[in-house]
Structure formats: C-alpha cells, structure tokens
Amino acid sequence: MRTGWKAAVCAVAIGSAVASTAPVGAHGPTIGGHGNHYYLNDKFGGRANMELVYGDPRDVVYVGDWDDNGTDTLMVRRGNTFYARNSLTTGNAEVVFSYGDPPDTVLVGDWDGDGRDTLTVRRGNRYFVKNSVTSGVADAEFTYGNPDDEVLVGDWDGDGRDTLTVRRGSTYYVKNSVTTGVADTTLVYGNPGDIVLTGRWSNTQPGDTLAVRRGNTYYLRYTLTPGVADVVVPFGEPTDTAFSGDWGGDGQDTLGVRRHVGAPPPPAQPLPPSAPPGPAPSADVNCDDFATQAAAQAWFDYWFPAMGDVAGLDGDDDGKACERLP
Ligand SMILES: [Ca+2]
Ligand SMILES: [Ca+2]
Ligand SMILES: [Ca+2]
Ligand SMILES: [Ca+2]
Questions:
Q1: Distance of CA 319 from the midpoint of ligand 2 (Å)
Q2: Which ligand minimizes its atom distance to the CA of 158?
Q3: Range of the domain at 235
Q4: Of 62, 117, 153, 189, which one's alpha carbon is 20 to 30 angstroms from that of 73?
Q5: Is the same domain home to 224 and 302?
Q6: Where does residue 17 rank: exposed (0-12), middle (13-18), buried (19+ CB within 10 A)?
Q7: Is the whole-model pTM more than 0.85?
C-alpha cells in the first residue's frame, strides 16, 4: 500500500461525542471514523490483545473474511479501488481490485455462503451483489426497503449466508435472502438513537444478533428478540470508532476499535468541479490510455488529491505522470 493517499469519501465518525447511529459489525457498511490504528480483542476482555496499523487515517475501511480462512481482516477503499489484507498485522495490501463507481455505497457480506466475504454495491434501494473480490459485473441484483433506509448485514438465520436488515428507529425488518420482497421477520430492539453493532457473540447462537453501544460499554444480546442484554462488556474509549469481527477464527465475533493517534489528519480535499477527458479512475488505467503526457498529467492532477496515484502513472513519485509519452 502506498502512503499519503486520501480517500474520496469522508467517513462518518461514530462515538459517544458524535450523534450517529450508523450500524457497524462483522459485516456491513464502512466502519466509519478515522485513524489508522486498530485495537482488537479476540475474546471479550476489556483491553486489546491485538494491535495493528493499516492504511491512512482518512481511509474508508471495511471488515471481512476475504480469503475464507475464518478470520476477519481489514480492507481500505480509495475511490472504487479496494485494498485488502488477509492478516491482522501491520503491512501492505495483499489483494487489490476495483468494483462499482467511486461514489457508490458498498456493503460487505458472504452473500452465497461460500465462506468468503465480498461486496454488494448499493444505489438507493437497489443492491448489486458480487460473489468474488474481483473486478467485473454483478452476479445478482435485488431491491429492498427505501432508498434512505439504514441497513445492517448479517447471517440472521444461521444458514451461512449474509442478508440485509433495514433499521427504522428501533424497528428492524429482517430479510433472510438476497432477493426482492418483504421482510421475513420484524423486531423492536433498544432505543431509536442507539449505536448498534452486529455479530455472533456466542457460540451458542446460530447466527448474528445485535449489540447496543453506550459510551465504551457494549450490551450484547444472544437472540434476535426484545429483552435485556445477555452480557455487558467494556472496551476501549468512548471516543473510539467501534466495530466487530471474528479476529481469532473461532466462529465468535468480538470487538475492535479504530483510533487516530497523533495530530488530527488534514481534511479530505473535494474534487475540482469537472473531470478532464479520460477513463474512470481505477488501477486498470495505464499510460496507453492517453495520447499525450499533458493529457495524462491533467487526469493525474485531477484525481490525485482524492485517490492518490490510483493508476500508477507516476512510478518514480516525482509528480510527473507518463513521462515517456509525447
Ligand atoms: Ca480471512
Ligand atoms: Ca461468499
Ligand atoms: Ca442467513
Ligand atoms: Ca473470534
């Protein structure tokens, strides 16, 4: 992974100091927040027993099991290019691929139950499912809920496949297939403003359930039913961004936090109003896509603030793209 890139999407911070109820979990949307230090615990201990640094502080980050080894790891996104690492250690990306368009919302899940997490692109209430972490067109498409609905991803019925739940306040509309149609079950849980995490918190439960976060205290429920928490655990700091995943590969999801260490990162720079002629930004672009060095340079200068040298046009890092072109 190259350093110094800035994500095109400014992520939403989650924490007690920030009024956000975005769902975070072992699977689902971006985990939000900022910082490139991650503190995990593969049990429900109060303190982290795994620490790593990955990507840049402003990166958009997702959690999933990209290689079907049972362990969830991190993936950062820059535009429509995704950089996944398969171990929970500091280091470079091991898998790089492009999917969708830079403004797309994506969700992580194991949609076909093969053990491997992949992406679904969301556009409003339309979902485009892809069952491999490779570039290419969607494998399936469906519609669920309303365009502005908050969605959670999980294996609610324990059949090994992840599906969607739409959340409206404290009501959850659970669907157990990635097909167009109405909810299979409906659940009322917690308060409308709660920060909710999803996961399989105990090996006694068949599938994923909910947890509510208040400050740095987590209230875990082992069934998708109304009621009080089965376990209450502390973790991290109230200002951390929290998420969940199976860090040890034992089938149980536990907690992790994302934290910024050091001076605040510079704000993400918005793109100028219009793009120069050229292809959409991705790792598939190369110097042969441009007739002149000036054309390549204009394209490079436009996309660099948001996406870095996404196409690798400036191999020697001197700021000049495709110097071999006329
Ligand atoms: Ca894995
Ligand atoms: Ca899969
Ligand atoms: Ca399922
Ligand atoms: Ca685990």
A1: 39
A2: 3
A3: 24-259
A4: 189
A5: no
A6: exposed
A7: no
